Amino acid sequence: MEPIVFKQGDKIVKHIQGVDAAGQPLNWSEMQSVTVSFVNYAGVQVAFFSVESGLTINPDDNSDLQLTVDGSAGLLPGFYRYDVKMIFSNGIVKHSPTGDVQVQQSATI
């Protein structure tokens, strides 16, 4: 997946698509639970997003999951991993897109 890069304090919107085992786009609205976490390279979760709390499913395209991170997230400059979790009705995680996040230092005057 393409890395997410933004400056500390910026608001960003990242569009996330996933595919199922048959190679078809995931319909995010069919998932019981969708979450995204940002984890630092020491394995510590530093941010968590869920539907209606930073995550939105595009009503016009259910294969488009939109992650919104605003300046209030309080992320320090650095490198993180993001991990998308979806749980189906049987409680087993079937697919977990992951990628890199880079928060850059904001320019100060």
Which structural category do the helix and sheet elements fall into?
mainly beta
Fourth-tier CATH superfamily name: Macroglobulin (MG2) domain
CATH fold category name: Immunoglobulin-like
SSE string, helices as H and strands as E: EEEEEEEE
**How much strand?**
over 45%
Descriptive account of the structure:
With 109 residues, this protein is mostly beta strands. It has a single domain, classed as Immunoglobulin-like, CATH 2.60.40. Helices cover 0% and strands 46% of the residues. It contains no helices and eight strands. It has an eight-stranded mixed sheet, with no helix packed on it. It starts with a strand and ends in a 5-residue tail after the last strand.
Summarize, please:
By secondary structure, the chain is mainly beta.
Observed structural traits:
109 residues; mainly beta; Immunoglobulin-like; 8 strands
How are the SSEs ordered, and which strands pair?
Layout: E1 4-7, E2 12-16, E3 33-40, E4 45-51, E5 54-57, E6 65-69, E7 78-87, E8 98-104
Parallel strand pairs: 1-8, 4-5
Antiparallel strand pairs: 2-6, 3-4, 3-7, 5-6, 7-8
